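Researcher: Structure for this, please.
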Amino acid sequence: MANCILCSTELKFINTPTFGSGKLNDGSIVCTSCFKKINNADPKMAFKLKNHSLNDIKNLFDEKATKNEQALSRLEEIKIQIRQLNLTNSASFLGRKEINELPNILAQSEIIDNIVQGTYNNGHGILISTNRRLVFIDKGILYGLKVEDFPLDKISSIQYETGLLLGGIKIYTSGNTAKIDNIEKLSARTFSEFVRDKLSKPNNSVNNVASEVNILDQLEKLAKLKESGILSEDEFNEQKKKFLEKL
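Model: Predicted structure, token format:
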């Protein structure tokens, strides 16, 4: 028997894709485990694997690895932003699965400035305030990912109410009212007042956005210097820390 062209595992009946679905265009074969990896990365390529070469597969895996590295880097930046908020509520701890989704939700220039945890439309998640919008994210176990955003320029007002232990936030936009319940009592008030203050200073908000985007541009330039070998990893991290402290 031959070996898998990718991992060199000896091919047997039990670990060889059925009906020749694991064959490449040169006749070489991948094992069932490698075939699943290809399918996870690109189902269309896996479906017509016989039309592709070993180089096509390697390029696919390299591209996926690069995207994963970029996502992890962006997640690290987001977590740094959250730590710098010095939150006293439980959102950053109990909302970890939602936070892990943020690299795929937030734009590169978006900056998080506040977070609370609560329930919305029968889903439990986190409400995030950024320099552009409010976003509710619910990474449910059964129903997947749910995201609803409220652009700052569409919000007419934000209100809150509190009970003995918990509170709620109402976000009023044109023709719609969204209510997030079961928020920690103090957090409901401080978050709402924070957003109110931000909405009352549109000119300052615009200036802050411009400043934040400029810093992010500088970070991107630093990353390119590191990739080209001009900056070492330690030098990059030191400069990155200085820029993030300005946010």
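Researcher: Any notable elements?
Model: The chain has three domains: 13-66, 85-200, 202-247. The beta strands are 112-120, 123-130, 133-140, 144-151, 155-162, 166-173, 176-184.
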